[in-house]
Amino acid sequence: MQEVRTRFAPSPTGLLHVGAVRTALFAWAFAKSNNGKFILRIEDTDKSREVQGATEHIIESLEWLGISVDEGPNAPGDLGPYIQSMRLDIYKRYAQQLINDGHAYTDPYSTAQVAEFREEAKLLKQPFLYRQFRPEDSKLKVEEDWYKKSTLRFKTTIFKPEWHDIVRGDLSAGEESLDDFVLIKADGYPTYNFAHIVDDFEMKISHIMRGEEFIASTPKFLALYKALGITPPKMATMPPILNQNGGKKLSKRDGAKDVLEYRSQGFLSEGVFNFLAGMGWNDGTEQEVFSRQEIVDNFTLERIQKSGAKFDDQRLVWLNGHHIRNMPTKDLFKLIDDEFWPEAASKSSSDYRLEVLGLLQERLKYFAELPELSEFFFEEPNYNQLTIKVKKLDDTQRAPLLKASIECLDQTDFTVEALELALRELAQTKNLKPGTIFGLLRIAATGSQVAPGLFETLAVLGKETTLRRLTQALDQL
Ligand code: GLU
What we know:
mainly alpha, Rossmann fold, 11 strands
């Protein structure tokens, strides 16, 4: 059986958006689930659209996501180079083969003439087909020394295009989808239509995964495969990614970020990976939280959906929270760069921060939430501005109760168990519901109504800090 070899073939024209990276992920997961290889190929033949640094950005994004590249610009392989602009000789060789076999000719028309033809077709309300203006065979020629001087065009044959798409099923198109397209531009660079066919063949690609925008051009590709005598790789069209409302294709305005922006916000790579994998694929069960390895183990192309997949960033937040919770606190701690902690945390020991993280882990969804969730562990609440109000407690009760709590806690060991016992006892003596006292102490000790479990929080804050804060709160009442 043929080795599974898939590729991701981005053009270095900007940041890596969610749709592209999801395609890469599917291609990678499929290769890995079949002990195959995943190849990264940079398609940089449109020099006018190239953005500096984009290739490095692509490589870094894949690396962060754990999408390992077996062969590519940074991973040596036998079938390189893996950057198209370094393969011009190869395209030229294939172009020569097409010329020799009578499948290519140099464009006899100027750009202005082609524009005129187009206009003509428009007036006649007909689709523009270049081949209708193709000179008769007897007049077709290849100009000598054509390379880097003239545009080289493919001379298509006409047939009924039919092909199988692993995701979409059997597809076909009409003859009007076949045309004489450009193989090599006058600047010497090949078009995507030509270069990717040569490269996929040379790099022994077994399966092509790409977006649906390429379906319309597939008949043209089929004609070229025929002319070159190449059996096309298997094709799988990825579902488009739609915005939240499910109507339109996802755009930047819908909140989709570049992959590395998720890293900057403190999402886990495994959380983002899980999120991307879920956009258009499921394993057929109700399971939603997957490790990277589980996705590979369960991945099949047959379970990729045809219809559009919705982009829902709340789902990313939710999934990431799961991955954070499932991780041993020590491992999680190592992933959190200092910059994610509130500034005041720099004065605390890493043991203390680790303890704080242990308490917050249950609620933390991504690291950028840390300052808000953890501030009070490192900084005194601002008692001048704090309103210490607790439901079911009228104003005259608060001060005496706080005073009694301080006295009680002063006698207490600050272990979680001892704190719980002491405070429940206090509630009983005062004939109050435990929740009422707990609420009062929570806001007095942390300045916040929401905090992790009270006893755990007080234990981490420690006796000295807790009593000092409660006293300040009491002064304020
Ligand atoms: N360079 C093409 C793009 O970025 C790749 C399409 C393909 O995967 O074949 O859209």
